Amino acid sequence: TGKRLEILKEILPKIGRVLTFYDPNNQVAAEGATLAREEAKRLGLKLMERHVASVEDLQKGIQGLKAGDADAFLYSPDPMVGSQAQLIIDMAKTKRLPTMFQDQILVAKGGFASYGQNYLEIGRASAKYVQKVLAGTHPKELKIETLDNVELAINLQTAKQLGLNVPAQVLARANKVIR
Fold it and tell me: Which of 46, 63, 143, 159 is most buried by a 10 A CB count?
């Protein structure tokens, strides 16, 4: 979460207010917001936290945003908010609001940027475990593996629609660039 905010600031050095929606009753989302709050303070940003307890609350919050209310949107790891990602992406384009997600699939769907695990790679690794178990290997015999690679994805089509220029040094680090 902190690194996503740091990358967002690197891409958009003039941002000051970053918006995030999350359910404070979701422990993972609340912890993500705490990390974002700490990083925002370090970067000199104001994190605008919007608490939502239902999809309806989230939809009302998104629809109530006005252009200029925030400089960017940061996804906090909250499954309820994630379920409305396309609505967030569509709203963000309308309001000219860059988005930072953790899932690069959302960048392919029109989000501006993401920094996080590649869920397709996680799925492939998981499938290998399943294959071994189905072939007769006892789960106790399998070694624990981790995927440590984190990927940066940027959608230059969305950047163009928002009137943004992505610095060359950031593009050079990106694992996936949608042109």
Answer: 159
